[in-house]
Amino acid sequence: MKAYGLMAEFSSREIFVAATERARAAGYTRVETFMPFPVEEVATLPPGRFSPVAIAMGIGGLASGLGAFFLQEYAAHDYPLDVGGRPLNSWPAFIPITFELTVLGAALTGVLTFFILAGFPRLEHPVFGDPRFRRASQDRFFLCLRGDDPLFPAADPALLKEEWGADSIEEVAP
Questions:
Q1: What single-letter DSSP state applies at residue 42?
Q2: In terms of pLDDT, which residue wins out, 59 or 27?
Q3: What is the pLDDT of residues 51-75, one digit of tens each?
Q4: Sheet of 5-10: strands edge to edge?
Q5: Count: domains in the chain
Q6: Does one domain contain both 73 and 159?
């Protein structure tokens, strides 16, 4: 059975930030970080891989906006009401609802896409089984190289421990 990944433990914030930068520079794209408090240097690192949430939101917003407009157009022609001599295709009156449903569709699509990509609802994460991980919310920093990373087979725990300055590196069972 393939391991979930390699988990490195750090007691120093500075060493943890340097190791995270080295992991990104080495080309690792599936890196997870766990910290007891926000570390700005880690948050400003470039992301490891492209996220399709923005594209999904654009497609969802466009689809819901077009759907809202054509639903109103259909209703205007299927149930014609002559009010004040206005034409049936009064598209300026359709704009507010179209805009609102475009925003709603994009937001719902974004949230749903995020949940799907994050694997929610996940009640048990593999790193929670590591007894060292209890200190992640107290005073330790953890860096996990995921097993589904393309460079993972080349990751040698002993070499990474020496190179990154980690207190310990162990495999995480799936």
A1: H
A2: 59
A3: 899 999 999 999 999 999 999 999 8
A4: 31-34, 141-146, 5-10, 168-172
A5: 2
A6: no
